[in-house]
Write a structure and sequence with these properties.
Its EC number is 2.6.1.-. GO terms for molecular function: pyridoxal phosphate binding; transaminase activity. Keywords: Aminotransferase, Pyridoxal phosphate, Transferase. The chain is an alpha/beta fold. The chain folds into two domains: 6-45 and 284-374, Aspartate Aminotransferase, domain 1; 63-280, Type I PLP-dependent aspartate aminotransferase-like (Major domain) (Aspartate Aminotransferase, domain 2, 3-Layer(aba) Sandwich), CATH 3.40.640. Helix content is 41%, strand content 15%. It has helices spanning 6-9, 15-28, 47-59, 71-85, 100-111, 128-134, 154-158, 181-193, 250-262, 269-280, 284-306, 328-339, 363-374, and strands at residues 34-35, 94-97, 117-122, 138-143, 163-169, 197-201, 226-231, 244-247, 310-311, 319-323, 341-342, 344-345, 354-358. The chain has a seven-stranded mixed β-sheet, sandwiched between helices. It has a four-stranded antiparallel β-sheet with strand order 9-10-13-12. The longest helix has 23 residues, at 284-306. It starts with 5 loop residues before the first helix and ends in a 5-residue tail after the last helix. The structure holds 4'-deoxy-4'-aminopyridoxal-5'-phosphate (PMP) and glutamic acid. 4'-deoxy-4'-aminopyridoxal-5'-phosphate (PMP) binds next to helix 5. Glutamic acid binds next to helix 2.
Amino acid sequence: MKALSRKVADIAPSATIEISDRAAQMRAAGIDVIGLSIGEPDFPTPAHITRACINALERGETHYAPSPGIPALREAISQKLETENDIPCTPGQVIVACGAKDSIYEAMEATLNPGDEVIIIDPSWVSYEPCVQLSGGVPVHCGVRESDFQVDDSLLEAITPNTKMIICNSPSNPSGAVMNDASLRLIADAATDNDCYVLSDEIYEKLIYGKDHVSIGSFDGMADRTITVNGFSKAYAMTGWRIGYAAAPDPVAKQMIKVQQHTISHPATFAMHGAVAALTGDQQCVEEMRCEFDVRRQYLTGALHEMGYETAPAEGAFYAYVKTGGDDMAVSARWLADAHVAVTPGTAFGTPGWVRLSYAASLDRLKEAMHRIAVLPEK
Ligand code: PMP
Ligand code: GLU
């Protein structure tokens, strides 16, 4: 047979998905694995959101919708971005896609030409680099300062005349760090000075502990070059619904809509009605889940520190990023094999020597996981 796509052959599989699949297989074989490898809220989707979707199904909202999303949802999203995030946005600039992951991919397809460079700030979520590669771009990595996980001048050193986009992800997956004003300013100035786009992935904006979320698209002049991505998976425990969105400058939005028309068309129509209820309904459910994550965060980081581990600043999302001081691949393999605790090695996020633990698991399971790791015999 002729060779398959080199572009796809060259990208890595998703480590987060692969490890959680492995944990699921072990569980199916009767092993009590504690899954801390995938970032997925363990709460049910709030009932009023599910109800709105069921109502939509019963009303017969089972047909094609406008490709960029149903008008009520695009309207609700643009209002949310204007009022909560201070980002100027019309409904026409909003594209609703099958999860934020899809929005990120579409944004890259819409903006990149072969050879265009995209700066990824490590540690970084596993899918940024493959999305850049699939879109014909070239990933260029830089790091954060290890002392506080903020952006420093290494970002400027990574910029070349071919830089087209900088990815900004605050709160960060996997580190949990929240970018301070200086980091956001550095990115905004670098993008402006070098005429680049910023892709701001704000999917964890609601899961933040003791800090305020700031959108880079709200900075003076940045709305024209920022594609703000967000979604429903994390804040509303809607991972399986596959609804995310991007708000982009008009010319980019027009390109993204073309990509969407020829690929997914749009997310499930009835699911979009559920998403309208999520955004326009009572937000107390979001706060309740955030508070519960905060309890787990405090427990988990406290337990890790007691065991002598250093962690990144756990200020947002639902991850503890832990310095292993050794081979992270070996540590995570050992924790899975011997303690039956699944975690994701930092190598998958561009930072070997660290592992990511998700605290989107019950307090009891987190306690059991810490106990199992603590009693592992020294190697
Ligand atoms: N961005 C980040 C940083 C994430 O952690 C995730 C989680 N999968 C996504 C985007 C995509 O989320 P979804 O496609 O479920 O909206
Ligand atoms: N974003 C989550 C994670 O990092 C879900 C899995 C994925 O899509 O990568 O675990």
